[in-house]
Design brief:
Length: 255
């Protein structure tokens, strides 16, 4: 039979357990939600995920060292246009094009832990120009976000998508299987129990055979919805339509 703790040792174990639970709680809270120190007058985020085989199989593609073990990758988390820019007459497409360059430009890479860098290297597309550096420069640094918190939050959000029935639905169809646009949206709405029909926007491009293939998944989140995602009230309809996938398209797998 297992030995029972003596009364002398129980308070010590209780204190150790409390410390561990406290550290876990701090770690979980640290990444969600985010707080912008500057230009915080924006309305929503776009959480951009890549369908890696499609993303790397179209356009300029990915580098040869691109890991092939990931289907749903990470592009970034993008704050929408700050109200200060709206007041200046800057349009949404202009904001999408320049991002933080409206306020300041930075060529430096974010300072992140080795563990976070390793994780990002596994799940982000490997492009000729560093996508991580680009994302930090365009979408993070001008807001005064803590870089470590920001990218850890992105990874946690991706993990929540991967744990969903929606991810299982897409992964089950990988391998150049044709899907209906409406069915993918329905699977998303059902998995996340939302009636926001444009909260998910699908992005497609033509591959070398000229077929439309899935490349990205753009999810619109309320500015205060990160901690609740994908729970009630976290999702919102995209204010501007950017879904470009046709009625039917392919969900490619790695070749």
């Amino acid at each position: 039979m297992p030995r029972m703790l003596s009364a002398q040792h129980r308070p010590v174990l209780a204190r150790l357990l409390a410390i561990v639970l406290g550290l876990l709680a701090i770690g979980g809270a640290r990444a969600l939600p985010l707080t912008a120190a500057r230009h915080a007058d924006f309305a929503h985020y776009t959480f951009a995920l890549t369908w890696q085989p499609g993303f790397c199989g179209t356009g300029d593609g990915c580098l040869r060292d691109q890991p092939h073990g990931v289907l749903i990758g990470l592009h970034g988390l993008w704050a929408s246009r700050p109200q200060s820019l709206i007041d200046r007459g800057i349009s949404a497409p202009q904001w999408w094009s320049r991002g933080c360059d409206y306020f300041q430009h930075s060529d430096r890479a974010p300072r992140l832990s080795r563990a976070t860098l390793r994780h990002l290297a596994r799940v982000m597309p490997h492009l000729r120009d560093s996508l991580l550096r680009h994302e930090y420069d365009k979408h993070v640094q001008c807001f005064g976000f803590d870089a470590q918190e920001y990218f850890d939050t992105e990874l946690r959000l991706r993990g929540r998508v991967l744990d969903s029935a929606f991810a299982r639905y897409l992964i089950a169809r990988a391998g150049n299987r044709e899907v209906r646009h409406a069915d993918v949206i329905d699977a998303f709405m059902h998995a996340f129990r939302t009636n926001q029909s444009t909260a998910l926007q699908l992005r497609c491009e033509r591959d070398v055979r000229g077929q439309w293939v899935l490349t990205q998944l753009w999810i619109t989140l309320h500015v205060d919805g990160l901690a609740r995602f994908p729970g009630k009230g976290s999702l919102m309809n995209a204010p501007i339509a950017q879904d470009n996938c046709p009625v039917r398209f392919q969900v490619p797998g790695w070749q």
